[in-house]
Every structure is written in C-alpha cells, then in structure tokens.
Amino acid sequence: MLFRNLSGQVTAGVLRGERSRFQLFGDTMNTAARMEHSGERNRIQLSQASADMLKEAGLGQWIMPRSSKIYVKGKGDMQTYWLRKVKAPKSKVSELKNEMTTLAESAETEEESDYTDEVGLGFDDDSDRGMTKIERLVEWNVEVLTSLLQQIIASRGGVVNEIGTLSNAEKKCGSGNGTVLDEFTPIIPLKRFEAEELHARPSPGSIDIGDKAKSQLRSYLSQVAGMYRSDNPFHNFQHASHVTASVKKLLTRIVKVGEQNCLAAGSGSQQDDVNLIDLAGHSYGITSDPLTQFAVVFSAVIHDVDHPGVPNAQLVKENARNAQIYKKSVAEQNSVDLAWDMLMEDNFSALRACIYQTESDLRRFRQLVVNTVMATDIVDKELQALRKNRWETAFSNASVPSETTLEHQVGHDDRKATIVIEHLIQASDVSHTMQHWHIYKDWNERFFMECYGAYRAGRADSDPSVNWYQGEIGFFDFYVIPLAKKLESCGVFGVSSDEYLNYAKANREEWVREGEALVMQYLAKFNGEQERRSSLK
Fold this sequence. Notes:
Helix 17 packs across helix 18. About 12% of the residues have low confidence. The longest helix is centred in the last third of the chain and has 42 residues. By secondary structure, the chain is α+β, with helices and mostly antiparallel strands. The strands form four sheets. It has a four-stranded mixed sheet. A two-stranded antiparallel sheet has the order 2-3. Strands 6-7 form a two-stranded antiparallel ribbon.
C-alpha cells in the first residue's frame, strides 16, 4: 500500500444524489493525490508542511528527508519526507508508563496513542538501546524545549547573538537581598508584537538552534534530572516530566475566547498605545509569545528540583538550613535558586542566548519562572487566600475595568494571563487526579509511599494511613474539582477543561468505592518491601 500525508486547509461537504457521500475538496487534497504517484510501498510520505508540524511538536526525529525532490504536477519540485520507524520495544514502553503519561483522552485506545506521542518514544530501536528511563525522559524534555526555542528564535527573526553584554544584568537578576518569593508580582506584563512582525516570522521548523546550544540544553536537563532525589517515590524527575507533559498539552489547547484577545504594539505617534487584535488566535496573548510558553514549560521541569520528600511545614519544624533561609515556600524557592544558578553558569551561555537576547526578555523570563514555580505551593494558606482574591479580581463580572482606555484593558488582560498561567501549572502539578483511574491510582500510591515513609522515618507527626482515605475525598472536594471548574470558567482551555473536570469527578467516585481497600494494599506493599530489605541486610 502507498501512503501520503499533507497538511493544509480543505473544504468539506456532502455530495447529494443516489450515491451521496462525504467529500473533501481543495488544493491540499489535489496535491496529496498527486504525491501518491511518487510514494513507495508500505512507506508514509510527508509534505514539508506536515514535517514542519512534527518538528514544532518536538518530534523531528520521526522524519527523514527524501534524498531527492519529487515532481508534482501543478507544483513543480517538492521536498518530501519519509516517516521513520518509531516503534519502541514493548518493555521500554511499559517501563515508562508508570513514570510518565499524557492527559488521557476519552477512550483507552486514544490514551495509549497519545501517551506514545507525548513521551516522544520516537527513537530508532538502535538509538534507544541501552538508555535508562531517566535518559529517555531527558531526551523527551530536550525535544520539547528545543521546539520552543525554535519558536523563540523565529519570533526574533532567526537572530541568535552572543549575550556577553548581558553578563552584569544576569548577575543582578535574582541576586538581590530578598528571597525568590519577594520577587513575586501579581501582574506580569505581556510582550507586545507588531502585526506585521508576527506574519513575517520564519517557520520555527526551519530554525536550527545549533549543536552547541542543544548539547548545553541536554547537559542542563541531565544535571537537573540528577538534582531530583531518585529515592523519592513521588517528587522525582518522572513526576517533573509528567507535569511538563500536562503543561505542554494545556498550552497547545489554549483557544480563542474572543475577537480581541492578543496584544500588539502601537507604532508611529501611537507607540505607547496597544491594539487588542487577534494576532495569533490565542487567549490573553499567552501563546502569541513563545518565551512565555518556554518559561512555563521550563518551570514545570525544574519546579521540584532537590525536593526533600517532606512538606515545607516539616522543614520549618526541623529548622532545616533552607527553612532558615526562606521561612515559607521552602522547597519551591530552593528549586528556583538551584535551577537558576546553574542556568547562569558560563557553560550554558549558548543555551541562554537562545532563550533571550535583551535585558527586558531576561527579566521577563525570570519573573515568569518565579511566578510559575511559586504557584505550585498549594499548602500555604496565606498564598492560597491571595490567589483566590486575585482570581476573583480578574474573572468576576465586577472586575471589568470601569475605565475604557486601552492601557487599563491591557493591564486587566495581563492580570488574567498571569492568573491563568498559575492555574495551568497548578492543574498540571496534580494532573494525575484528573486523568484515567489507573494513572491516578499509580501516582496516589507513590505519594502515599513517600508520606508514609517519612512518617516511619520520624519526619511526620501523624500516621498518614489513618486519614488517607478521607483526606483524598477532601482533596477532590476542596481543591481538585474547584480547580478544574476554574479551568473551565476562565474559558481558555477548550475541551481540556471538560476532560479535567469529568475525570476528577469520576476518580472521586471510584476512590469512594475502592479507596479504603487500596490504602490497605499500600500498607501491605510498604511493609512487605521493608521486610524484604531487612532480610537482605
């Protein structure tokens, strides 16, 4: 059989008559039909547009350019690609399944397909051989962040210059007398773009970040992975990658919510004004700026670096060194400081040059990282109250600015964008509660093992197994389900908000039925593992 794939616009309709049928029309269909003549048996041929989409999705390793261009009637010579064999050994897939998965789709078969796509198991069998689970997760994160770096560079017209002139700004950024939490701001100003500038951007798929920058990115992520504590059943690099997958998926599902939802800079005599026009079809300008996307995904990767496996309250009680420094949001602030300091090292200069070229972009990147990681502290009651008030200020009906100037409207939209980003990372951080039951159950067991292990080690006051069953019900009722409803009410995430809410409700019902028995299983498993270890001593 011959297969071909072309991406583009089509017109669809039903042809009437005795043999009525659904039909697709247009140049895309005509070109795809003509490509068929140049195909080869049992191979899938891709157009340049389809190949670019795979590259932008971080799946460039799935494609291989044909050795020579093909001739297509009406189009002339075309560069096409072969879809490479991407089948991974079943054992590899099953090993990764417990470490990372995507947001589940509405059917089991869809979920399996999405999982394979999301983790990027598109390695050739030979290249995958001998890689550890962590190494494969590092490679997946490399591909995700590389695709975002391509978009950042494309937004600058392909420019990547050395940033030695920013060395002083880099030293000052995040090195003040205060802590990371002191840098938090309720509103992050979005970057404005000229409409012509957006339309003139080169295709991200045509951007090469360079071998040096990609090598530094891989090295950085490998070191980040090493800074996660592998003996943590829950707060480990697998969890960070799982959160990253959720962030990536939610970003791709942000949808247009109105005709005026993206921000463009003014020009000429109106340089200080902005025009709220739909430049990129995304909400509040979040995804019209690739640096914002990169910062949020980057934050997901580093948000639990060096997590000690116990809550902040326990660190404060123990008077741990980090608790003496930070006082509150201890683990989160420590993660930002460690990851940021490492990124600022000289051996990652080429990577940083891809991320930002100006001091303003450097500072905006830093602010986005600070806000995003700090949002993952969901236990601190004071921070929770502040977030609730800010949400109500941004999204209540009474929050519409009384002033009609564009300046006030922009500030209002910036506030909404900042809040949406925070809730995006919060939902992703507990995304296992809003996915298929078996995914939730797996991560719930991991978290139990971590908490119960801390208790047995004398690092918790009470036995978590006593209230784990009721505690999970309360967690669904007072955090997970209200959070899923917020995703829906902000009107940004399209069908994903419905999926999150439906899975959260379904998992709660299943937990009510099965939870008590599962807690007993968790305990038996923990004790069995302890006995096994004792017998080996």
